[in-house]
């Protein structure tokens, strides 16, 4: 199978909602302030609800409840907002077939992202960029699961997680890293 054929088999390429795309771009713009982000977040009810819920959680709760997205955004701060928006966009964009543990996939992605953020801080690099890279490090796996389910099922059954990429390359001619790189190119992410 060729990489292009995998993308052709996907009936629709997973998409990040327009509001989330705009927000991701705004986070990369050093001129963006928290008020601008809050107004953009208000355009997506799902993201807005998640922001309010997190701001009112035990971890972030202040003396009073946050009842507006703007107040919640101020309470959470730029980095937490960025993480929440990215996570919401990524987890909502993908579906996997039967036999693939999507919760375990996202749990692993968040663990890797957290480690990437920690390492970046220790080495003086941008921790949020590192977090994003960690979140997306194996995103190609989801596309293989949804675009080539017959191969994915066989690979899932026959191999351990450590040998996954090698087995994908043997069976498909490419592995999840190449698929992920192609998705990033098609989504025009930096």
From TrEMBL:
<feature type="domain" description="HDOD">
    <location>
        <begin position="13"/>
        <end position="190"/>
    </location>
</feature>
<dbReference type="InterPro" id="IPR003607">
    <property type="entry name" value="HD/PDEase_dom"/>
</dbReference>
<dbReference type="GO" id="GO:0016301">
    <property type="term" value="F:kinase activity"/>
</dbReference>
<keyword id="KW-0418">Kinase</keyword>
<dbReference type="InterPro" id="IPR052340">
    <property type="entry name" value="RNase_Y/CdgJ"/>
</dbReference>
<keyword id="KW-0808">Transferase</keyword>
<dbReference type="InterPro" id="IPR013976">
    <property type="entry name" value="HDOD"/>
</dbReference>
<dbReference type="Pfam" id="PF08668">
    <property type="entry name" value="HDOD"/>
</dbReference>
<protein>
    <submittedName>
        <fullName>Histidine kinase</fullName>
    </submittedName>
</protein>
């Amino acid at each position: 199978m060729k990489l292009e054929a995998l993308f052709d088999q996907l009936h629709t390429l997973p998409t990040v909602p327009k509001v989330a795309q705009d927000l991701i771009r705004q986070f990369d713009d050093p001129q963006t302030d928290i008020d601008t982000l809050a107004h953009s977040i208000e355009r997506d009810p799902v993201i807005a609800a998640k922001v309010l819920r997190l701001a009112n959680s035990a971890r972030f709760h202040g003396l009073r409840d946050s009842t507006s997205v703007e107040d919640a955004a101020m309470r959470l701060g730029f980095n937490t907002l960025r993480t929440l928006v990215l996570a919401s966009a990524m987890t909502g964009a993908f579906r996997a077939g039967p036999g693939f543990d999507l919760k375990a996939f996202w749990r692993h992605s968040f663990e890797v992202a957290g480690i990437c953020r920690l390492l970046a801080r220790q080495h003086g690099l941008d921790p949020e960029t590192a977090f994003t890279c960690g979140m997306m490090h194996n995103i190609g796996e989801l596309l293989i699961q949804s675009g080539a389910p017959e191969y994915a099922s066989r690979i899932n059954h026959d191999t351990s997680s450590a040998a996954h990429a090698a087995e994908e390359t043997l069976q498909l001619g490419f592995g999840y890293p190449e698929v992920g790189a192609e998705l990033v190119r098609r989504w025009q992410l930096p």
